Amino acid sequence: MKIIRAKDYNGMSRMAAHIISAQIITKPDSVLGLATGSTPIGTYEQLIHWYQKGDLDFSKVTSINLDEYKGLSPDNDQSYHYFMYHNFFKHINIDLNNTYLPNGLEKDSEKACEDYNHIIQKSGGVDLQLLGLGLNGHIGFNEPGAIFEKETHLVKLTQSTIDANSRFFECLEDVPKEAYTVGIKTIMQAKKIIILVNGENKADIIKEALFGPITPLVPASVLQLHHDVIVIGDESALSKIPQ
Ligand code: GLP
Asked: Which residues constitute the catalytic centre (predicted)?
């Protein structure tokens, strides 16, 4: 595991974008595992900037997102479909037919998960997985207690996640209580993983995830077992990790 310290959020975002760029340049038909949340927005902005300068070509890239709220349609401005389209896809030349997120509108949960697993298998697997980190150690929407062996599945969101994500919704009641997420097993099958952390409020949980016991109670701790993980954090998020 490599830990890269960036000065601030911009520095973190640029470093992540450099690694993703190198991935696309060396393998133009890369399968990228993408994440939502506020953490990766700067990375997407940097990639858009380099695309606009003519340095990047996304035409052969496939993207597979980690998760989607159950019950939200793609045009709901709180859905992850909406987030990805507006923060990234509409600004680059990725073929929208090659961008995937779980189908939040599928009521048959088993079908939604099977379909998504099939898409991942058909893609040949994720080359580079980008992750954020939930305050309770979740990755994707794999909440504490998540079984490491799972592929895509339906989760009940914890109160901590509902509270944390309520800042994007008009009120707490609007936050969906369930979501489809790629499982830990699938995340661990990615060839390379980048996890981004910024801000003081992530300092304790990133330390626990990287140096504490490997346990489903801290889902991100499983990353200690992956052979190619790059942690990129700003000074505040990495402040409790010794140099
Ligand atoms: C959500 C997403 C996660 C993300 C997490 C952290 O719950 N499902 O993929 O990593 O939030 O969000 P933020 O980056 O806004 O702190």
From this structure: 67, 136, 138, 143
Identify the pLDDT of residue 179. 96
State the catalytic residues.
Answer: 67, 136, 138, 143
The residue to mutate among 9, 13, 39, having the most atoms of ligand 1 within 8 angstroms of its beta carbon, is 39
What does 167-232 look like in DSSP terms, one character per residue? GGSSSGGGS-SEEEE--HHHHHTSSEEEEEE-SGGGHHHHHHHHHS---TTSGGGGGGG-SSEEEE
- Among 204, 205, 225, which residue's Cα sits nearest to residue 214? 225
Write out pLDDT tens, residues 155-175: 999 998 899 889 889 999 999
* Ligand 1 surroundings by CB, under 6 angstroms: 35-39, 66-67, 132-134, 140-141, 161, 165
The answer to whether the CB of 128 falls within 8 A of the CB of 196 is no
How far apart, in Å, do the first and last CA atoms of the chain sit? 14
User: 162: exposed, middle or buried (C-beta count within 10 Å: 0-12, 13-18, 19+)?
Assistant: middle
Minimal-distance CA residue to ligand 1 atom 3: 140
Determine the distance separating the centroid of ligand 1 and the alpha carbon of 208, expressed in angstroms: 17
Residue-wise pLDDT tens digits, 60-69: 999 999 999 9
Check whether 233 has a pLDDT greater than 90: yes
